[in-house]
Amino acid sequence: MSKPRFEYEYHKEGDFIIGGLISAHVYSQYTARFAFGSGGITSPPGDYVCEELDFEEYKNILVMILAINKINKDPNLLPNITLGYHIFDTCNDPINILGYATKILSGEKNAHNYYCKEHGEMAGFIGNSEFYSNNALAQLLSLYRYTQITYRVTDTSLKDGNIYPTLFHMTPDDRVRLKAVIKLLQHFGWNWVGIIISEDGSGDEESQELNKMMREHGICIDYIIQLKRKTINDFRTSGIITKSKAKVIIVCGTSITHFYHFVFHLHSFAENITFIFPPSWIKLTDLYYLKYTSLNYSFIFVWPREQKLNLDVYTKGVTFSSCLNDPLLEDIWVLWFQCLSPNPHKNFYFPKAYQCTGVRDVSTLLASHTTHPSFIYTAVYVLAHALHRMFMKKNKSEQNGFQHRLHKYVRNVHYTDPDDGEIFFNERREIPTDLILQSWISFTNGRPSYKTIATIQSPDYVPEQFPNVSDPVFWKKGKVPVSRCSDPCLPGSRKKFGSSIHKCCNECAQCPEGEMSSISDSENCMKCPEDEWPNKKQDRCVPRVVEFLSYTDDPIVAVFSAASILSFLLTGLILRIFIHYQDTPIVKANNRNLSYLLLVSIMLSFLCVFLFLGHPVDVTCMLRVTSFGVIFSVAVSSLLAKSIMVCIAFKATKPGSPWRKWMGAKLPNSIICVFSLVQVQICVTWLSISPPFQDRDTHSYQGKIIIQCNEGSVIGFYSVLGYMGLLAAVSFIIAFLARTLPDSFNEAKYITFSMLVFCSVWIAMIPAYLSTRGKYMVAVEVFAIMASSSGLLGCIFFPKCYIILFRPDLNTKTFIR
């Protein structure tokens, strides 16, 4: 391969030399370039040139020269020592950068391991901003232990201090930015994205790290495209992008050469694409001179703006003849002002140039391009401070062969700059620098404008949310784009895993009954707290309906209450009638005291209904079953005593019958006391061991909380009912046997019917009670109490009241005899 036709070199002697390897041209063309002239297609064979001048990197060369000149004038920094520089434009070519580095080190490009210089010793190198060039330079300089400072390379593979012990960085690596990218994707729910990598491979490591982080956070990559010449105009590449559901593209790498052409080809179908650019791509703003508005409303990470450096001394009022001493400035004149160059080969590559004269203000042209932070300015000062600290020491032995020890002083540099603040290297050999996320907002006929979204503070602070981006001004068409493989699962549903090969492509399944999801794309449905239940859409929890026999909400409670009160009053009226007619034969028959006791028991049983109505509490739960159990035991015991006395009374009518001694009030009172006390003992035992209590049933009915009484001991509950049923059965049998005895006021047949009603009600209540829940179960109990009490009242006392009130002729001793 022949020598490059155009070599861009800046050189100034000094006591110590700082090498600069900067890629002011961003592409090396190894094939012949064709030009159309009057004689057809011509080309100098076997040559290559550097193309596409990068104004920002040219300004970095000027900034480096400016910094060295300022240090030489500073009496407090490196006094009596002059710094020089040796700067090459590498054209972003690793072969070039190794050749130029060898020339700077030895004085001759091909004199490896030799030192041919007469003046000045090498202090260190400031490397360019491209990955592969820095990688090649780092491998070379690490062998010789020369200090190297990169001013805008963020690739993590160059941050290993064991492999590159003399390599330092002015900017943090990509990890902090990639964390911010992940947070940004999560914030907008973008889980299906594309990746574009620079043609020089500088984004390979970055894309791999990004892919790893995305997998950890459930984000997927649809495609990865490397920008090469053959892929730019490839219709398959265009088809991949246009057909993909990924509307967000993350750009990795540092070289933007082919992206210019890619944007030109992409312009027609990229209106719905949102790009996320790394900091080095800030130079894309130059595309707006070509009105490439398809990049509007994209995101870009940028470093803080550079401090104001006056470069007018190098660029203002420059004539064409004076700029010929600066090879890059000459290219600017030829390229932008289309002036003919004294070099015929340059004129061949710029065929439209003409003869120029006069003064042109180049500073205006350079100022029109986007500025980067002056990291290269700080890098020069870092080397100067490290040299100053080394040569201010009295130990002269360390100053011999200082180049191989200078990196230790660079590692410990710590000073404060009036403009840049505190300068030092952290454990990753990088200077902590904030990173700013901006929205790239521009207009068709204007310079691009930016809006700051968030600041990522070095080294590891990444914001969890980005609240400033909800405004429609940040988005194409005024709304956030959707970049997903499948539609989001709405609240009330969850992702259905296993329905697709790719985990980011999924179907949605409705949440199971009793569960909910309140966010989109929920992976799991959740159960509500015990006192809540999902609404119909299953997207939020609502308070459960509390259910019990309420006085305000249930009409049946009003019916029960009215029926209970009326029955109580009716029973009281019958009691008053019996007391008023207590001396009549029909009241005296079968022991009127037992009738009074039975009527009082029936009255209390009607009032007992109110213990079952309303909101249950522990006290009412303990009283409701035990109270009606004891009351009914007294009532049934009274009926049993009546039935027994009927039988004894008939037998005692015979002369000389031994049954006469059982006549009187002593026997029935004893029967009532004994059988009632047994029920009392059962209730006391039940309340002592495991009493009933208020319970909240959240399982029987969906969406309801049943406030009910838990019986505590099931054995105690059924013992009360069982004993009451036993008394009723015995009383029924005795009354049934005595029903045919010849007595005008024989109550046995009425007791038989009352016990038949009583037993029928409670036997029918058991299956109804077991088959219902909640307030309906309580309603069954209330109905059973009222029905059985009414049965006792109606079967026994209504016939007597009829005789007392409507047939007084039957209520006489004559009728009895």
Please characterize this protein's 3D structure.
With 817 residues, the protein is an alpha/beta fold. It has 4 domains: 9-171 and 361-424, 3-Layer(aba) Sandwich (Rossmann fold); 174-302 and 434-478, Response regulator (Rossmann fold, 3-Layer(aba) Sandwich), CATH 3.40.50.2300; 493-542, no CATH class; 555-816, Rhopdopsin 7-helix transmembrane proteins (Up-down Bundle). The protein is built from 24 helices and 30 strands. It has a 7-stranded mixed sheet with strand order 12-11-13-14-15-20-21, with helices on both faces. Helix 3 links the parallel strand 8 and strand 9. Helix 1 (55-73) packs parallel to helix 14 and helix 2 runs parallel beside helix 3. It is rod-shaped and about 160 Å long. The model is unreliable at 1-5 and 28-48 (pLDDT under 50).
Computed CA radius of gyration, to the nearest angstrom: 51 Å
**Largest sheet at a glance?**
7 strands, mixed
Total of DSSP H or I helical runs spanning 4+ residues: 24
CATH class of the largest domain: Mainly Alpha
* Order of strands, widest sheet: 12-11-13-14-15-20-21
Low-confidence stretches: 1-5, 28-48
* SS-derived structural category: alpha/beta
Q: Average pLDDT value?
A: 78
What general form does the structure show?
Answer: rod-shaped
- Counted up, domains total 4
Helix content: 40-55%
Count of individual beta strands: 30
CATH homologous superfamily designation of the largest domain = Rhodopsin 7-helix transmembrane proteins
CATH architecture group name of the largest domain: Up-down Bundle
Alpha-carbon distance between the two ends: 150 Å
CATH topology call of the largest domain: Rhopdopsin 7-helix transmembrane proteins
Strand content: 15-25%
